Amino acid sequence: MLKLLLRRFAGDRSGNFVILFALALVPMMGLMGLAVDYSLALRTKTALDASTDAAVLAATTEAEQIIQTYSSPNYDATPLAIAAGQKVGQNVFTADAAMLHTASPPTLTLNLQRPNNGQTITATAYYNAKSPTFFGKMFGTTALNTNGIAHSSLTLPKYLNFYVAVDVSQSMGIASTQNYMNQLAKITPNNCVFGCHVTTGNTPSNEQIAHNNNILLRIDVLKNSIQNMIDQADAINSRTASAGRKLIETGLYTLQAYIQNDGAQNLVTLQTLTADHTALTSAASNLDLGNNDSSGVGDSNFSSSLTQLASLPEMSASGDGSGQNNPKSFLFIMTDGVDDVYGNCTDGHCTAPLDPRLCQAFKDKGITVGVVYTTYIPFPNEQTYRDLVQPFQPALASNLSQCATSGYYYEASDGPAIQAAVKALFAQATAQGTLTQ
């Protein structure tokens, strides 16, 4: 009887499913548990990714603020900025990570740099963390490793000073195009085109005649071009948030001459360095030719005016533009390059090309010198031109090119070319003048 019962039990298949399910339940529960552990680890990683992003952004921002605040020509704030930025970034990550449930405190390696002390600050951060398991322990896994990386790059705003020096001698009153020259010659009392635009005794003056007939002179084109430059600088200042001084400040000066008195004030400051758009616009509106009378104010004396300009207190050493106390400086000279000196050559004075050595004083201060050379169109029928310019005209371009910093020299023969040259100089100087992150 017992043998029969054992055979029937052994041959019964009706309970197989229950047994198989019971045997499979343990690994199935384990796999489900591991899925929960993995989900928790993924949530931890997502949180730490965000914390690392915040850390690198905080690090670059702190470094930027330190550099802008403390940099000067005599002090490189980069090491201080790097140390402060790394500390701030680490603190941001640590504070965020402390709110997460991890097997051990996450670690962060933050690398903050300012390559070649340039305008860019970069940050790279790596983190490692262990997310604890709840079900994995059944399989000997107490924690899941997680890691990540974040990058940040910030371009420092560039603080810039522009010193704009304009030659206001009579030859800057040449009509700005050939067509305007022809028109002016027909309507002036002496049919003059060169060097006779504000003549003593003429009422109205030749300059007034030109303006009354909507004829643009070179000085007018320069005035308009400088106003455009002022407007562009104001636009940059307006769209870029900056505590303290604005990113761009501009000063405006005229170069003239009392040729009978080398000790006279041959430099006129129309506006000292400022970011005040209204003040600069008012100063630019006062740009005009010097009077061509016995005082000789309508001439040029570069050896005096440029020397006076270089000695101004505001013409300090240029920085690299990285901070408010460390602005990068540019001097833009707009001239025909003819220097008037006292003598008995023609009409009580002589002329010579601008001496490029006069520009060295600015370069020695680290100031970038830009030159717009308003070239002469030959006036073979003008005796004044033949006497005062023609003998050395080929040397003008060479001397002015030597005056300019390499890459910052432009020649302009007429109004449109003058406008393009001034625009190009400003664009070249402000190429990295906006903040990106």
The CATH topology of the largest domain, please?
A: Rossmann fold
Provide mean pLDDT, rounded. Answer: 81
Task: Determine the strand fraction and express it as a percent band.
Answer: 15-25%
Q: Can you give the helix content as a percent range?
A: 40-55%
How many domains, as an integer?
2
The dominant shape is elongated
Count, helices:
12
Number of strands: 11
End-to-end C-alpha gap: 90 Å
Named CATH architecture of the largest domain: 3-Layer(aba) Sandwich
Low-confidence stretches: 432-437
Radius of gyration: 37 Å
CATH class of the largest domain: Alpha Beta
What's the CATH H-level superfamily name of the largest domain? von Willebrand factor, type A domain
Write a compact overview of the structure shown.
This protein is an alpha/beta fold and 437 residues long. The protein has helices spanning 2-11, 16-70, 78-97, 178-187, 206-212, 218-239, 277-285, 302-310, 360-363, 383-388, 393-403, 415-429; strands spanning 104-113, 120-132, 143-155, 160-167, 248-255, 267-274, 328-335, 338-346, 349-353, 368-374, 409-412. The protein has two domains: 21-155; 160-429, von Willebrand factor, type A domain (Rossmann fold).
